[in-house]
Amino acid sequence: MYIIIIGGGRSGYHLAKMLSQNDHEVCVIERDSEKCRQIKKDLNVKVIHGDGAEENFLKKADAERAQAVVALTNDDHDNLVICQLAERHFKVERTFTLVNNPGNAELFRWLGVNMTVCPTSLLAGLIQKEVDAKLVGAILPRSIGDLRMTQIQVASDSKAVGKRINELELPAECIIITIFKENSAKVPRGSTLVQAGDQVLALCQPYREKEVQELFSGSSPVS
């Protein structure tokens, strides 16, 4: 599948990496020249330096043959323009966008965007249902207010392996939001068992982040 991503920030970078590793053809359009250089250096994807909300850059990216366009800029208006251009001018069948303001999500869907992803709403949804682990890792912000979001894979030699959540010596000012098990997200309860290979998503004060990582990473070095 050929997928165009507009916005090469954290979300766009990790989504491009994940999709390219799964053998999709990916093109990233990014305004910032330094981000373009970094993506070119790190990833095996096509990179275009420019404004994805402008028709000529979408044309340069061969948008007419894209199966999907993903708008991940920090501006909801730009994201909407991108999706409408892709759908109406280039006849792209599937459009996806990041919605920074939850109040815009319904409007975007009404205007024809196939799928909207709002980090705030997505985080709230983790409490109610299972979601795809890879999507969460790519889309969720690194921080919410003064709190830091961190995702750690549980190492086989971690002292957390085999313990239940209520048995863990979690640092103060830290909560476990969800645990990813085999690409699905489980809302953790006190009785939830931690196993090697699990991905733990935690919210904590920035100065507690290293302690949380060390709890689950075992003897593996913490960056």
Structural account:
This protein is of the alpha/beta class. The protein has two domains: 2-117, NAD(P)-binding Rossmann-like Domain (Rossmann fold), CATH 3.40.50; 139-217, Regulator of K+ conductance, C-terminal domain (Alpha-Beta Plaits, 2-Layer Sandwich), CATH 3.30.70. The chain has eight helices and eleven strands. The protein has helices at 10-21, 33-42, 55-60, 76-89, 105-110, 119-125, 133-139, 209-217; strands at 2-6, 25-30, 46-49, 68-71, 94-98, 115-117, 143-144, 147-153, 174-181, 184-186, 199-204. The protein has a six-stranded parallel β-sheet, sandwiched between helices. Helix 1 runs antiparallel to helix 7 (133-139). The radius of gyration is 19 Å and the shape is elongated.
Condensed summary:
By secondary structure, this protein is of the alpha/beta class. It is 32% helix and 24% strand.
Number of strands: 11
Report the portion of residues in β strands.
Answer: 15-25%
Individual helix count: 8
Strand order of the largest sheet: 3-2-1-4-5-6
Calculate Rg over CA atoms.
19 Å
